[in-house]
Amino acid sequence: MEQPNYTAKDFASLLGISKAQLLKMEGDGTLPEPKTVDGVRIYLPHDIKTYLELLGKGPLVKNHRRQIFLNFKGGTGKTSVSAFYAFRLAHLGFNVLLVDLDPQGHLTQCLGINHDAFEATLYNVLIDRMDIQDVIIDTPMPNLKLIPASLDLSPVELALTSVNARELRLRKALAPVQDQYDVVVMDASPSIGLLNLNGILASTELFVPVLADFLSYHGLKILFETLSSIEEDFDFILENIYIVINHYNASLNICQRARAALEQHYEAYLLKTIIRQDTKMAEAASMGLPIHLYTSKCRGAFDIDSMIKEIFPNLPIVF
Fold it and tell me: What is the pTM of this model?
């Protein structure tokens, strides 16, 4: 994954001003001069916050949020959606920490991170009490950090069973660093276990990507029953739960029927945004590229943007 950048025209549009206004304010010192490459002005995502502050447009977000993507049913496209969503947030100037909770490391792979590029995972934090800051690795974007995963994380479930306060280990580990990030995005494996329980209890919001089929629909009942037990046992309540339909094909009758059932029974949680079926999403994930780097002119990229606008309706940027 390469460091993305903006042209002067696109950066100005994001800030809600014209290119001429941007250049004028840079010329009179109101805004900083960007770096240039071969005479071309280059604007970087992590500079967006600085420009917004100088323009008096306020912070990107007022409250820090910790979000987990989880579904006990596999095959819903959860990992690619969480990776593309988190990357796009960073691309828009957010400070983002991605946490891979799946020993398969698919989230890590979606960002093109090689398993040989890191030596520690959450196992070392939760079991060996390593400082979480020592497990966080850089990506080509200064405002996008990652806690990676590999098969080395696999024994964590068994190791946690004999640990005191085992369900709250991740919440406590994240506490010293979470305020450094606008959003912490966790991707969980499709299972019920101690690691995912740690992820839920360390989160303020839950995202549940589902397919528009009746297996996904019926799987939601198990998920919500589990959440109800967690809330009762730990005196814990998530601030928001978002169900997002993924891989939607409006031409299929089964998709239309499943969507109608979801709207009838889970309307309070169902996002208006629907992520449509798009082969570009699968192609991007297979190449270890976020969809907005692979191609921003496709249905998948448009739908991820729509999802972000729905989750963060008061953003002071235009995209």
Answer: 0.95
